[in-house]
Amino acid sequence: MKYLRLVVANLGRHKLRTILTILSVALALFLFASLRSVTTTLAATAQFGGARRLVTLNATGLVFPLPLAYGNRIKAMPHVTGLSWANWFGGKYGDGKRFFANFAVDAESYLAMYPEIVMPEDQRQAFLKDRTGAIIGRRLLTQFGWKLGQNVTLQGTIFPGDWTFTIDGVYTPTDPAIGDDVLIFHHDYFDERIGRAGIAGWYIVEIDDPARAPAIAKSIDDMFRNSSSPTKTGTEREFQASFATMWGNVSFLMSTIGLAVVFAILLVTANAMMMSARERTGEIAVLKTVGFSDRLLFALVMVEAGALALTGAVLGLGGAKLLYPAISFNGAGFLPGFTVTTSTLILGVLVAVGLMLASGLVPALRAARLPVVQALRHVE
Amino acid sequence: MIPIVYNVRSVVQRPVSTALTALGVGLVVAVFIGMLALANGFRAALAKTGSDRNVVVLRKGADSELSSGLGRDVVSIIAASPHVAIGADNRPLVSPEVYVLIPLAKSFDTSQVANVVVRGVSDQVWTVRSNVTVTEGQRPASGRAEVCVGSRLVQRFPHTGIGQTLHFGGRDWTVTCHFSAAGSAFESEIWGENEQFMPVFRGEVFQSITFRLKDPAAFDDAQRALQDDKRMTVDAHRESAFYAQQSQLLGNILSFLAVVITGIMAVGAVFGAINTMYAAIASRAPEIGVLLTLGFRPTSVLVSFLAESAIIAAIGGILGCLFALPLNGIVTSTTNWSSFSEIAFSFRVTPQLLVAGLIFAVVMGVLGGFFPALRAARLQVVQALR
Predict the structure, then answer these.
(1) Is B269's Cβ below 8 Å from some Cβ in A?
(2) The pLDDT value given to residue A380
(3) Taking CB atoms and an 8 Å limit, are B66 and A63 in contact across chains?
(4) Model-level pTM?
């Protein structure tokens, strides 16, 4: 430990350089953590959603509805314990620049099936009783400056006109897949306004045993195979995953860029660290003369490199870990549940260790192997 | 002035350090160019989709073709409008279109499904959309279950070869031709006859009506006439503006990402460059002392070291351009969230982007070199020589 002061003194010699080195390592690892989190968040959406819920869509495509009559037939199937349905509304608020999801649901069965939608009991009751009521995710409060009990008017894009809803409840989702920037309103009211009852956008089917999901999904699809609207049924997780794959190559691009970023900044940083170590040739020779062993000098140089890299790593990774929850970042709605995972942090630390080796090894070996006489001559 | 040869020689004198710094700067520049090329390519694909001479009519309030719906009565009102150009066969150049999304499995991985646009068009469309040309095969015959497939879909989806059969909407469709559309988003679509698609998809309703303007300058008059018509409730958009607006959401996200990511990277690289230059100057203090003794002014020393830093960065910039160039033309695909459809587009590395990348590199070099160069210029001769 007595050598710690020597390391600290060495780091303090060029304060500006030390600070800049630490900051550039911190920036590299901050970016690394951010970009990797985009990929992990997209991949994780496939893990969200209830294992006991299936989603039934029209096989022709997302935009095609299903007859409401299918509901009773699905409900009557064995192992099906609950059923609800919803319809995409696609309304916009204000200038419409900020997109948010809004859809009509069969409120009572929907809320029963989604315990992840958490809100006070009195708000839930108020919503169930209010035909023109709506509930919203917590994020919409700050996003649009809405308040509980306020009337809000959406412009329908698919279903024209002004639609006014009363905000009866504000919920906090316990599962990121639910989304905290969603407005949900009554399917009854929707049917009444558009005058087209008997249509569902998609069904949510609750089953008793997740292990039976593939078999049940198949029997639902078989039942409607030769009807006017064949269905496509999958687990909620598959449904979520299909949205993630719609990004196509974008997440691959993100990870490639992430690698390039890390590599670029680390190159520059490692170079700067090596150059500053090289300046000390004479000093190391003096230390050797006064009796510092080769091994000790090797260790001292490595510790110095490690201190720079790890301080940078703590700042960068810690910054990313703390910053995103603090600003409740969700990528403008595209990355619900954005978090920097532990595996990302561990990888980040490994990158820092790699940097320590890359930047410390060459000068440390040089220091250890330096012939004293030659080095001292060099100084003169 | 200190001759620039001095800096070039100093740079060559320490090849490893120069190469590392230049490589770092080069990667930053490559990412900068690459990300902007992506945003560029996406915007270009959608911008080229629309023509200035065409007008797209949607139901009032609909922000995309997907959410729109228009009856046959609207088609006849528009076809009779004096603003519509007349074709060689004396018929109005109008294409009432059915627009739906269907899930299609990809060639390389059939578990990956993309939402592909299926567009039902009238036979006038080949004249209305002048950038569309059939590259292979025959146009679908009226009254038959035939489709024409956009060229970007051909490699990426199975069963899209000529003579093969695609199954969607509960029916089989024979592929009779492939078409190209100057790299626009149409190339990611499947086209067929509107009257064939209506019964299998959404019934007696069109999603949009596209027509050729008789006088391209008279768009405002045409827009007013159509939107004020009491018999229908529609919005008329200039086709070019409509598709440009469809690219806004994702285009802005991509540009924003490019700026933020490369911004943070650039700061890191500048810090690195500052360190490298400080170290370089510290190890060359006696040399600088000699220069000052010889009578070179501190300003010359400052300029000289700035130039040196800029040279290293410029080498990096050139490396970055070389890294980014092979990206040009690579086809990638993603979902355009404004229309919810998958669209394929290519990276577009333009000369302007390359120049911007080089300038970006030199700016990083100058910023990184400034304070170290200032230190060099302020060195005390006696101290430096000792």
Answers:
(1) yes
(2) 43
(3) yes
(4) 0.81
